[in-house]
Design brief:
single chain, 174 residues, mainly alpha, two-stranded antiparallel ribbon, 7 helices, 56% helix, 10% strand, globular
Length: 174
Amino acid sequence: EQFGGMMMNRRLRRMVQEGGAPFQSAQIGGGAFMGYCEILSVDAEGEPDQVMPMLKAVLVEVLRAREHGFREDEFEVAKRVIGAGLAQAAARESTVDSASWMMRMNGAVAEGKKPMSAAQTKELAGKVIPTITLDEVNKVFAESAALDKGLVAATLPEKEGVEIRSYSSIYECV
């Protein structure tokens, strides 16, 4: 899941950088929700009068990735970025304050995972990441981005002069 989210976020950032996005920023996230289910959230920020174009653009990109997957070059970049992040976390672990360390350990226990140091996580990831294939990442992303298996909620602005045509116009985007 981390690979798919990272690659999707890089695509959304690229859209903004290239000037082709109706939003100023957008990101995808997800994970365990209160220990009961998995969630996928997509957030976009921009001008209030661009709400519908933002919603449509983000959904189109998520569905494009779901239907067609990610490219090999995107996957290679994601592997390098994750590896560098893990190396950096392991290198600075001895300087982490006790509250942050405790929150990380508590989070692992709450998720039913074995608490590990950053160095242990880096070592384990170094063994696991090379075994992950792009096909596996694409399959997991497609399953987690299935819009027909959950709730789609849109938080929209309430601002004078900005009109959302109707709830059905939001439904049409989805």
